[in-house]
């Protein structure tokens, strides 16, 4: 079964970025960085979603991220599906931090229950078919609107680029590199929207 083990972002200052991600989100080596900043403008076509148990955890993670220099795109607030906020970190990556709960039911925590890579696809149906052909396990599918794959420890979700941008509170326009490499055990390739996949470098106990 295909698993996504880590995400690598291209940044100008790797030491500063490593320190930022450790302090802001505390998800360990699931998030990695490497030097270099390929040209890009506007929306990079993806976001990382951190799914947590309750609103206080959303507020805590949003707080440390913003304190470290992130910009709020959507302040944390209650919505139809729960409680969530969206921000852009100092390195241009968009994060959505969300819970299905609308009130706290336990002690304060910074625990992240799920990490989901949200990709904005130009054609969700075609990209879904592409990933199924590569053996990714489908777990949810709502036609051409939303698709999710069970690639834990990091899940993969697809929706249209326009829908993704609207959900995240940004303009859908953008060109150039995604500045993202998906580390998985699916081989080396680029998907129909040029998202790059490469073999994961993980400790032996994770295999």
Task: From the structure above, extract its key features.
40% strand, 2,3-Dihydroxybiphenyl 1,2-Dioxygenase, domain 1, 207 residues, 20% helix, 4 helices
Short description:
By secondary structure, this protein is α/β, with parallel strands linked by helices.
Structure description:
This protein is α/β, with parallel strands linked by helices. It has a single domain (4-206), classed as 2,3-Dihydroxybiphenyl 1,2-Dioxygenase, domain 1 (Roll). Helix content is 20%, strand content 40%. It contains 4 helices and 15 strands. Helix 1 runs antiparallel to helix 2 (55-67). The radius of gyration is 16 Å and the shape is globular. The model has no long low-confidence stretch (mean pLDDT 95). InterPro entries: Glyas_Bleomycin-R_OHBP_Dase. This is Glyoxalase.
Order of helices and strands: EHEEEHEEEEHEEEHEEEE
Integer count of domains: 1
Cross-sheet strand order for the largest sheet: 5-6-7-4-8-11-10-9
| Percentage of residues in helical conformation | 10-25%
* CATH domain class name: Alpha Beta
How many helices does DSSP assign?
4
Number of strands: 15
């Amino acid at each position: 079964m295909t698993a996504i083990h880590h995400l690598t972002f291209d940044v100008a200052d790797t030491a500063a970025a490593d320190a930022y991600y450790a302090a802001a989100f505390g998800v360990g080596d699931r998030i990695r960085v490497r030097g270099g900043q390929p040209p890009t403008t506007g929306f990079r076509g993806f976001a990382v979603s951190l799914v947590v148990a309750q609103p206080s955890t959303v507020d805590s993670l949003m707080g440390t991220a913003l304190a470290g220099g992130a910009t709020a795109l959507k302040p944390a607030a209650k919505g139809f599906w729960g409680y969530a906020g969206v921000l852009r970190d100092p390195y241009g990556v968009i994060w959505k931090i969300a819970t299905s709960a609308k009130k706290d039911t336990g002690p304060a925590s910074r625990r992240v229950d799920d990490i989901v890579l949200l990709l904005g696809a130009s054609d969700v149906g075609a990209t879904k078919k592409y990933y199924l052909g590569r053996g990714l396990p489908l777990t949810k599918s709502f036609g051409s609107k939303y698709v999710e794959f069970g690639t834990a420890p990091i899940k993969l979700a697809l929706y249209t680029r326009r829908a993704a941008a609207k959900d995240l509170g940004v303009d859908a326009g953008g060109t150039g590199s995604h500045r993202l490499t998906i580390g998985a055990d699916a081989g080396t390739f680029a998907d129909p929207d040029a998202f790059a996949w490469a073999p994961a470098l993980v400790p032996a106990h994770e295999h």
